[in-house]
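Pipeline run #58 for the internal structure catalog. This entry was flagged by the ingest filter as a single-chain record with no existing model, so it goes straight to prediction. Upstream metadata was stripped on purpose; only the residue string is passed forward. Reviewer on rotation: M.T. Logging verbosity set to normal.
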Amino acid sequence: MPMAGTYRVVIAKPGLDGHDRGAKIVARALRDAGYEVIYTGLHQTPEQIAETAIQEDADAVGLSCHSGAHMTLFPRVVQLLRQQGADDMIVFGGGIVPKDDIPKLKDAGIEEIFTPGAPTAAIIDWLRQRLAATQKA
């Protein structure tokens, strides 16, 4: 299995949400765990996020949303990635996401949702396992 450092993860803040503390904490934790992290900054469109992920040849994309627009923004990123042939790119999300929305987001291609209070170790462990499964496939 490749070392975590060989994996590239884009962390992005779609939409007008200005709360980036959680995204920065996750980005730092992933970097500390050995991943190569590209943080896109605030106020990114789904198109910008998909383009960055493809240009950076990312293995995964982590999306963070606190504005309530996750049901529109997260699936749009997945749709754009799929349209551009990035079917194997892992997409996960976090932020203020109501429990009832999580199954709908998973149906739309977001593989996992981490809500406030999720330990960064849980995110790292999930991503490590998910990427390892991709390598075996």
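catalog note: The two ends are 12 Å apart (CA to CA).
catalog note: DSSP finds five helices and five strands in the chain.
status: ready for reviewer M.T.
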